[in-house]
Amino acid sequence: MLPKDCFTATFSRSGGAGGQHVNKTESRVDLRLDFESAREVLGDYDVARIKRALANRLDGDGRLIAISSEHKSQFQNYRAAQERMVAWIAQALVRQKRRIATKPTRGSKVRRLDAKKRRGDIKKGRQSKPDHD
Q1: Of the candidates 95, 29, 21, 35, which has an alpha carbon nearest to the alpha carbon of residue 64?
Q2: Which listed residue, 63, 98, 104, 116, has the most CB atoms within 10 A of its CB?
Q3: How far apart are CA 84 and CA 66, in angstroms?
Q4: Residue 84 near residue 57 (C-beta atoms within 8 A)
């Protein structure tokens, strides 16, 4: 897990319904992960992978942003933003299996050619025959 000093959280007023209470509480959470301080824990390779995978979620300074305003509670929004960010990072760090290219089997080649032959025969059967007197 990353230390808390890697993150910065700012709070603001959340939009939407909520009556008078929403106008005076700052329940919206803007959580940002600073990769320079996280580099010590994650390492250069993992930081580069996360940045590449989550490039559309980075701000202008290269920090990862998670914003949450779906709950009325500031604490619940903070937890939701944390969980979202953890899920994104975990997804970005999953290594994809390398695909091993294989050749088609002899049977699959034969089946493909037979299907093409049958299809061609069907289309030939649709052609009109010229009349011979």
Answers
A1: 35
A2: 63
A3: 7
A4: no
